Amino acid sequence: MPNRDCRVGFMWNTAFDSFDYGDRHPLRPGRFRMIRDYLDSAGLLASANVVEIEAEPLSMAVLERVHSSEYVESVRRISQTGEGEIDIDTPGFRGIYENALMLSGATVTGVRAVLSGHVEHFLSPTGGFHHAKFERGGGFCVFNDIAAAVHELKQHGLNRILVADFDVHHGNGDQAYFYDDPEVMVISFHEDPEWMYPHEGYVNEIGSGRGVGYNINMPFPMDAGDSVYRYAFDELVPKLIDLFRPQFILFLPGFDAHYLDRLAHLKLTTTMTRYITGRIHNAAHKWSEGRLGVVTGGGYHPDSLCWGVASVMSVLSGREYSPPRQNPPFKDDEETWRTVHETVDQVKDSVFPVLGI
Ligand SMILES: [Zn+2]
Ligand SMILES: [Zn+2]
Question: 308 in helix, strand or coil?
Answer without folding.
Answer: helix
